[in-house]
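Notes on consecutive records. When two proteins share a document, each keeps its own sequence and its own token line. Never mix them. Below: protein one.
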Amino acid sequence: MAHSEDIGFLKKTKINVHSFIGFSFISFIVFGLYSCGNNNSSTSETDTPTSGKETICVDETFKPIIEEEIDVFESEYKSATITPKYKTENDVFNDFFKDSIDLIVVTRGLTAKEKKFFEDKKMFPIETRIAFDGLALVVNNKNIDTLITVKDVKKILTGEITKWSQINPKSKLGDISVVFDNKNSSTVRYAVDSICKGKELSPSLSALTYNADVLDYVAKTDNAIGIIGVNWVSNKSDSTALSFLSKVKVMGVSKADVATYENSYQPFQAYIAQRVYPFIRTIYMINNEGRSGLAGGFTGFVAGDKGQRIVKRAGILPATANVVIKVNMNDQYPE
């Protein structure tokens, strides 16, 4: 499962920010070495928007929701088969630029440089926003500190804060152990770009392999903070998410200088919709099929009424549907 440093029941690897950022640039240069034209062997020119076979690449953060979308789509269109590959964000884009995949699910659109890459090959990928999600901060059930400010999150990520007592002088938990899902994940990129505004992450931060690993680690580690995609802990109709929620606590995050119950918010749909929860991302489906085939059909389904209902049920915010979202205040910070 893991990499370098053995910590007992699980292994972690330290995050090398320079390697993470450099990888994307180097990969982009490598992409240019590939020949022009779409060489995707996973699709056939005979498929349609509702039939055929399609392999897609998905940011592992969104495995729970995409699994459900595929299940419903295939149950409705019996002649369609969608095969997902769940990978880190870097690996997803790697496959996309190599023309081996027509459809990806990611947390950012293409950059101007990346669009130019496709335009030079006479390709014009279509970006479709399907949802807005948040990054969830989870802590061990024994941890009494469930509120935190954006300012302190940034200081933790950059190494200015290293102990729980720096957040709460009464805490006896010692050092803060921060874990991400994967060193090449969209979660790490968001932490660098959007939380730390490009400032280097602390070398003491660690990464595992999958979001589920983070939840297991936090459940067994009193002093840990895990940073994961919110749909792993937000879907109350999913028995897996309920199981995870029983293992950990989801922190409330405040934009104010001092976090209180009144100004701190958990990543519920309503708070994402109101933009009061601070760590929000857009989820995109990017289609480079270039014709009306199964990749486009599945994208249209996810962005349509049924697909957006699945998004809502998964606990994240639909991007293309007008929905009424309520939050039960008793769910936030239960005693």
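Protein two starts on the next line and is unrelated to protein one.
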Amino acid sequence: MAASAASDITAVAPASIATLFGGFGPPPPPGVSTLALPGATVNVGDSAGVTRPAPLFYSSTTQINLEIPAGTAPGVAVVTVAIPNGPSFLGSALVRNVVPAIFTAGPTIVPAAYAIAYGPDNQPQPAMIVNQTPIPRPAGSRVFLELFATGIRNHVSPVMVSISGGQQATQTSVPAYAGPQGQFDGLDQVNVEITNLPTLPPPPGAPPGTMYTLILNVDGLVSNAVLFAVN
């Protein structure tokens, strides 16, 4: 079954990035975990009876990364993987209008994101990759997280961001931007201001900075949670 490429959610949205796991093509030789599948194609047949080709980002005998075609109708879709000079493989996808999911940095729950500070002159400073180090917030600057996600661009109601951590109640707000990233097919972006999050003294023995949890709420569906720290 197709899953969101940004989380383990076994549902996908039109124009989102998805992953298929399985055995495609001939098994690799002993000692080799997977083989590339040049020439593989994927078609998605939706609940309205329309079949569309899916753009592929990566294909191998164990994993295929693809974009669910824009316009795919909600419901259960049939996913067909075709291998040159080989058999076809049938799978399925549960398609929803939105399936919010935030990309993380490798196997962690730190978001794949940048932190950007805008100085008093409103000019952006060099972007900082978000990792486990607390994000600095220079005095007089406004600081934003640029999160990379998928499955949110078809939202009907405003996207909501919920941030909780430290000793504060959960803050819920509308992000400065939520929609297509603009450069990569299927990739969405959410820009969230974190300027006014309080910095609290860490507990004894804890690393510096205040840890916060962030989730997206899109048309009533919540994303996976990610963690970031601020100074």
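For the record: The domain at 3-95 is CATH 2.60.40 (Immunoglobulin-like).
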